Prior knowledge:
It contains five helices and six strands; from the N terminus they run H-H-E-E-E-E-H-E-E-H-H.
Amino acid sequence: MFKQRTFAEALNPIDLVEDIVRAWDWAYSRDDSRTLTAELQGGWGETSVCAAWHMRPAVMQIAAACRLPVPVEGRNALLEMLAHANDMLEIGHFCFERDAGALCFRHAIPLRGVSASREPVEDILLAATSGLDQFYPAFQHALWGGKSPAKAVAAAMIHPMGEA
């Protein structure tokens, strides 16, 4: 007898993520049917991207991470940086994975009763990777360069135009 599959089980959004990262030529692996991990060269080093599908609740989580050494005396600045940077984000949020020593960008997409579509998933993957690229130098300036977290984040928000 066949097991009846739910709508959420039938439309696994990780398959869509796989199509996108394959088209973008990112190195990736499928750990199982509900998880995909990709590695790419970000603007400041290796970036790891993970997409995970949770059927109950029907949510896909996307996270991007890169190593960020934090000196013991920089922990308060790190927390303040996270708060300032998160205030600037339109989607997702930054967190710090202490065990991995990594700055992470995370976003969850609720998918109860609907399927994921390509454009929003691409937007979130781009927001995750470009967010790390944009804010990583600000974290460095606050943690190692002595800049205040507010000034470091303000500098990260400047978008230069053209080339020098």
